[in-house]
Structures are given as structure tokens and as C-alpha cells.
Specification:
This protein is of the alpha/beta class and 304 residues long. The protein folds into three domains: 154 residues, P-loop containing nucleotide triphosphate hydrolases (Rossmann fold), CATH 3.40.50.300; 62 residues, no CATH class; 60 residues, Alpha-Beta Plaits (2-Layer Sandwich), CATH 3.30.70. The strands form three sheets. A six-stranded mixed β-sheet has the order 6-7-8-3-9-10, sandwiched between helices. Strand 7, helix 6 and strand 8 form a beta-alpha-beta unit. Helix 3 packs across helix 4. The longest helix is centred in the middle third of the chain and has 16 residues. The radius of gyration is 23 Å and the shape is globular. The termini are far apart. The structure holds adenosine-5'-triphosphate (ATP). It holds the Pfam family ABC_tran.
Length: 304
Amino acid sequence: MQANTEAVLAVNTLHKAYNRQPVLQGVSVDLAAGEILAILGPNGAGKTTLISAILGLVKVDGGDISLFGQRQQGSKRSSALRQRLGVMMQIGTASANLTVAEQCDLFASYYRNGKTVAELLQIAGLQAQAHNRFGLLSGGQKQRLLFALALAGKPDLVFLDEPTLGMDVQARRALWQQIRELKQSGVSIVLTTHYLEEAEQLADSIAVLQGGQIVAQGSPAQLTAQISGKQIYCHTLLSDQQLLALPAVVQLERQQHRICLVSQAAEQTVLALLQADANVSALEVKAVALEQAFLQLTTQEEVA
Ligand SMILES: Nc1ncnc2c1ncn2[C@@H]1O[C@H](COP(=O)(O)OP(=O)(O)OP(=O)(O)O)[C@@H](O)[C@H]1O
């Protein structure tokens, strides 16, 4: 099969303000066919507003949005385009009184050649709960049903807003597997998440949104590399003040009996550390994890 390199989504310098408060400030992101883009950011960063703007649910003040190579005019989305999109609703927007089967039936009825009720129940893994009301499902079961409903129209591009919110670790991993399988079937996916591990596990590309601006974008590996730091772990009797005074140290954390320093020049820091404390033990130097990279990126922006 030939690789498909068509950009299914291209967002260029998007601006949006609510009551003159800027919420999106020149946001540009894109997504190649068959890939997963994760939009990662803290509360209030503008993730939901960005997705809503792409879907035409909120009117933007400036910038361009193209879907499947077609530039979108204003907040109108054609019915042919909507047939190609799948959106995972938030739990609060689903009707609590409908049964699982009724929800599946409703969504299946929206599409000409969509999935059947039986297929949707199977994706959600809720065949045994088909006649239970949505409101009585567990949090994880609700999320699984909403994920299945997003696929009702056999979409080419799916938007998942916080898909594993409130799920326990096992349920989260199971849904990650389904998201991977969806990607393998050729579907392109945009997901928003607070969970760094989720973005790292699933995404081909991550856009870090902070205060309405993209502060970093790239593959998980590229993003980590943007932070040139290393983590230095050890046991030492040096004080916080002494450790923070070591060359190239930008961060200090105490973890029970050991400390973790983030350094922008690990060799220099380690040399000075060993000179200052000859009894340093359990010394370990590691590349900065994506979590540190994310924290550094978002904290730098807040300070700036
Ligand atoms: N309809 C609205 N009217 C006014 N302000 C809004 C509206 N919708 C969102 N905002 C504001 O825009 C900012 C971004 O909100 P948004 O929901 O896009 O962030 P988010 O990154 O999705 O946050 P979270 O992770 O908490 O869901 C917030 O300050 C929010 O209060």
C-alpha cells in the first residue's frame, strides 16, 4: 500500500478571544493522514477551544483551517465533510436516560454507511450492558461507549477530547490499545490530554499549548531533545542552597533519601558535585523525561 502523505488537518495562525481575552493567539498545527496529533496543555490552555474552532463550533477571529485539503470558510462545515469526522463527546453531553443500545442506535442512524449497533457494542465492549441506562454505567464504561460512538460514521479523522479522563490504569491502557488499532486501520486522530504519558505513548506529534500559544511541537523524541538537560540522581549531604549553586543546575527535587538535579551541562555539574561532596553515592545521570520537558516548557512560558 502506498503511504498517504496528505495533510488531513492544517491550522494556520488561529486567533480567538472571548470578551476581548485572547484564548488562541496565532495557533498553527497540522496532522498528516494516518497519524496521531496530541494537543497537550494545562487547564485553560485553549485545547477545547482549538478543537471546537476546527469543528466549526466556535467562530474564530482570524487564521485559516483546512480539512482534507479544503480551506474552511467561517464556521460552516459541509455535510459531506461532517460525514468524514468523528467526535468523542464529553460524558456530561450524553443523555443519561438512554440505554447503551439506544445511544448506539441513535448514532448509527446519523450515518448512511456507518457501523451497526452490534459493531458499536462490540467496540465499547458493552454487549452485556446493552440495556443499561447510560447514567448507570461506570466512568470507564461511559468513556468506552463515547469512544465507540465517535466511530459510528466510520470517520477518516477522529477528535478525542480527554479520552481516558477518570479511567483507572488498566482501562486506560485498554483504550490506548484501541486507539492504536484505530490508527493502524488508517484513521487520523487528534487527541487532547493532560496526561504526558498518554501523549508519549500514542502520538506521532505533540503540540504543547500554553496560554493560547503553541510553545513546542514535534515528535515525543524531538520535544524531549528541545530540552538539552539531563537529570542527575544521587545521595548527598549538600544543602539545597549548595546544590542550586552548582554550575548549570536549573532545578532541584528531593525524593525521600536522594536528590534529583536537572542540569543543562551534566558533566560540569557532576564534576563540581564530586568536588563539593566526596561522599556522593548512587550517582545516576539520565536524559530528561518528557514530563520534565513539558514542565520546563510550560513554566518558562509562565515566567516569560
Ligand atoms: N464560551 C466561553 N466564554 C468565555 N470564555 C471561555 C469560553 N470557553 C472557554 N473560555 C475560556 O477560554 C480559556 C481556554 O478554555 P479551554 O476550555 O479551551 O481550555 P482547555 O485547555 O480545554 O482547558 P481544560 O483542560 O481545563 O479543559 C479559559 O480561560 C476559559 O475560561
